[in-house]
Amino acid sequence: MGKTQVSNHHPTQGTKVGNYRWIVCALLFFATTINYIDRQVIGLLKPTLETEFNWTESDYANIVMVFAGCYALGYIIFGNFIDKIGSKLGYAISIIVWSIAAMLHALVKSTFGFGVVRGLLGLGEAGNFPAAVKAVAEWFPVKERALATGIFNSGTSIGAVAAPILVPWILGAYGWQQAFLITGAIGFIWLVFWWFFYEIPSRQKRVTTTEFAYIHSDNEPIMAENASAIKWSRLLTIRQTWVFIIGKLLTDPIWWFFLFWLPSYFSTTFNLDLKKPSLHLAIVYTATTFGSIGGGYLSSYLIKQGWPVLKARKTTLLIMAFAILPIILARYATNIWTAVGIISLATAAHQAWSANIFTIVSDIVPKRAVSSVVGVGGMAGSIGSTLFPLLVGWLLDYYKAAGNIGAGYNIIFIICGLAYLIAWFIIHRLTSHLKPVEL
């Protein structure tokens, strides 16, 4: 623990700081990529599974709802649990649970069975973001956190890009069961690297004294190893927590729609063949990678230019909220590439929004409460994501029966376009004269 004595030292200009924190960021990126590959598989197999199990749109919506509900529960469980046992062990337990659940999909024989394993997958996957955001708070100074969060959060995009290429190939070569087995097993490979290369800075022998000092150059208190977690019921009484809750509650459902229904949208609207690797979907989800990293870079750049931290975050959020508005015009797209362009802008802006809303947590709450607040806000986002598929499924079934499923998607795109501006306005009101909370 000797390194803690230099926490207030600021490395002088030209001093070689060291880069081990970026190795940590890479580990978080790959875990998030795997998280989203495992999550995305069912959306890409939806047409095949609909035929196999005679699903309606509402059946599929119910399966998504079960996942979202258990994901919400998992956020609360893992959020507080990770603050208690630490990011290293907490992350390991999370990925073990979700990887096993992903592989169990291959053994399912009924729609009910899919609901059960999707629920277990949701429970396990919920540990990813509380652990990752906490690790960023432990390993990065404030001025680099949004960029680091943007980089690891881009794993959601890379996972969504890799899945439309990998899953159809496995489906065509081996069948849908093997698609679940092979993608689910990847998490155990990551686990080996995580266990051998990750530790908190005060315990990590590979980090230099200079880099350790740089990590703590914001003069934030270094979290004691025995620091107690804060009960989430107490966190609900402070405004800082509600900033993150609102940011997740109103926008997470939109991202889940992009994730679980875009393949089906392109299939039904533009006759895209989901049994083949999809360039269109790969482009949409590749755009989100640029959005995640770019959004993180933008607010970090503004802070380095002297902007107040919260102003830099909120300005970036507002820009992204306006960038998502054009998705309302997707209803007028008669060409698939026009739709790809409009939706790519919206999904990229969402990921930029996500990178900054996660980073706000470490800006305004102590490190020992970061995972818990992410858990509470993540639960709120998952509750919204549990209810939104019910509306989506009902709208699509209703308009499909009427012979105009496109009208259902048009209504959903209007909701998508407006959600972020509403969320930003509420966040702006909550953060007037807001300062970091002391717990």
What portion of the residues fall into strands of 2 or more residues? under 5%
Tell me the radius of gyration: 21 Å
The number of distinct helices, counting runs of at least 4 residues, comes to 18
What sequence of helices (H) and strands (E) makes up the elements?
HHHHHHHHHHHHHHHHHH
Oligomeric state: single chain
Low-confidence stretches: 1-10, 222-226
Category by helix and strand content: mainly alpha
Shape assignment = globular
In percent, how helical is the residue content?
A: over 70%
State the distance separating the first and last CA atoms. Answer: 24 Å
What CATH calls the topology is Growth Hormone, Chain: A
CATH superfamily: MFS general substrate transporter like domains
CATH class type: Mainly Alpha
How many beta-strand runs? 0
Major β-sheet annotation: none
CATH architecture annotation: Up-down Bundle
Q: What count of structural domains?
A: 1
The averaged pLDDT comes out at 84
